[in-house]
Amino acid sequence: MSNDVHLGSELPAWPQYGDEEREGLIRALDQGQWWRIGGGEVDAFEAEFAAAHGSEHALAVTNGTHALELALEVLGIGAGTEVIVPAFTFISSSQAAQRLGAVAVPVDVDPDTYCIDPSAVEAAIGPRTRAIMPVHMAGQMCDMDALGKLSADSGVPLIQDAAHAHGAQWRGKKVGELGSVAAFSFQNGKLMTAGEGGAVLFPDAEMYERGFVRHSCGRPPTDRGYFHRTSGSNFRLNEFSASVLRAQLGRLEDQITTREQRWPVLSRLLAEIPGVVPQSCDDRGDRNPHYMAMFRVPGLTEERRAKIVDVLIERGVPAFVAFRALYRTDAFWEIAAPDLTVDELARRCPHSEALTRDCVWLHHRVLLGSEEQMHEVAAVVADVLAGS
Questions:
Q1: Catalytically annotated residue among 130, 190, 215, 259
Q2: How confident is the model at residue 3 (pLDDT cuts 50, 70, 90)?
Q3: 314 to 11, 43, 307: CA distances (angstroms)
Q4: Catalytic annotation on 190?
């Protein structure tokens, strides 16, 4: 590979933080109560996050995987049920269902947006299907028109995996205004972070109350007699993390605006590189937070892609190989339908198969850089591919 082109200037760091986070941590410390039942930071964050996403009911939890698990549990997902998930996604989308004893049924994604294919979802709905989990890949919202109609017609609820979609909108509607449960992650790489953390948006108060009890070991907030109402676990977020997330939420909109300005520039430049196909944006997703800058190089092998990613990192570009199709992980097969096989799922999911081999993504901090840096990043990608 050529060694001529390196990133000319350092990209913005991630996470970004400042006095707001420091002041929040001191505020939480000075409360003298550091868990949510005695403090006020988690309650305040939930109210602020809900308002920012068009919902009245947000529940903060320990991480994004637990957010999905809790959302599924509130909807009654358990042993003997099935949850339809995209084959191309992070493993938490399937593991959350499998942890509850359910079978995750992977279906293919759209080859341009990398989001779940509604026609594949429709074909996979069966008598045991109890939920459909669209994943808003890299901030690009799934086709919520088609999925909403499919959910209404079939009676199978949607659970939005919005781990990449903080601040996203579909046809002017925020994630919490679309009428379904949505789960978010605040892991260290996400668009807003406290290192770890998650949240669930519920469409009504009754579901929120069920979620609260289950996330707090089966206890309502007023319980003093240990009358655990239901099974559950301890998914409570602590006050320090909530204080950081309040500050992070305050940065989100400006950061989204910057990334929305940079992605068209970088996408155009990447598309000019022979063999590179950037992720497409559905214009109905009219607020795209761009969690990742994703592109394909059709024809790559996994081995060649891994080498390309390594060289991009050496040249100063924070690059990653894309997710592996769920059914190509050992974890997926710990709880799987007995009639499913890798070969059969691969046949059903040709686009997920291709993405497993040839998709690369760049960390969203790239899109917080200057317009000049978009040209620098594209030049590095072009040079690395030319020399590979």
A1: 190
A2: low
A3: 14, 43, 11
A4: yes
